[in-house]
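Lab notebook, entry 157. We have the chain sequence and a SMILES string for S-adenosylmethionine, and the next step in the workflow is to get a structural model of the bound complex before anyone spends time on docking refinements. Request logged below.

Task: model protein plus S-adenosylmethionine, output structure tokens.
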Amino acid sequence: MVRQLRPKTTYVATTGVKEYRATIAKHVRPDDVVLEVGCEWGTTTDLIADVAPDVIGTDISPECIARAREMRPHLQFDAIDAFDMPALLALGKSFTKIYVDLSGFSGYASLLDLLSLLNMYTYTLQPQVIVVKSRSLKTFAHRCVPWRGESEEEDRA
Ligand SMILES: C[S@@+](CC[C@H](N)C(=O)[O-])C[C@H]1O[C@@H](n2cnc3c(N)ncnc32)[C@H](O)[C@@H]1O
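Result returned:
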């Protein structure tokens, strides 16, 4: 019998940095292993570290990572492209929560790229939750209604 892989990742779509950071209190626990992709200078990574010390911030920009390391020497930061899966896997962690905040990926034009990135993280890293800062994803999620059939029974069948 074929057993299809069905990761149980939940996606939390946020608009703006205030919402993005507000999710930390609800979704991050002290024993979580967290990755922030698109960490810039590590401001959110540091807020996550206040709750879950096992956190890594990554960014495509070596300049941002250099500044993050300078400002927050107690935290781990690495210069990695969000799409470089081998480099993310080489970090050697089983991430339970992933934060994604990539400049240029918030609009509708990049929604498909963002979804494929989330899909890639879902199947390779299998986190419990991915928090994303993306207005277009949040709008899209608002407009999606999962069809539950005529009754709840039908949905469970
Ligand atoms: C809005 S800033 C992140 C702010 C940060 N998350 C915070 O809360 O303070 C967006 C970051 O995404 C990074 N970025 C853009 N494209 C990326 C990619 N393909 N891979 C990794 N980082 C990327 C940029 O270098 C930039 O630092």
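Notes for the group: The mean pLDDT is 94. Worth checking against the assay data. The CA atoms of residues 106 and 134 lie 4 Å apart.
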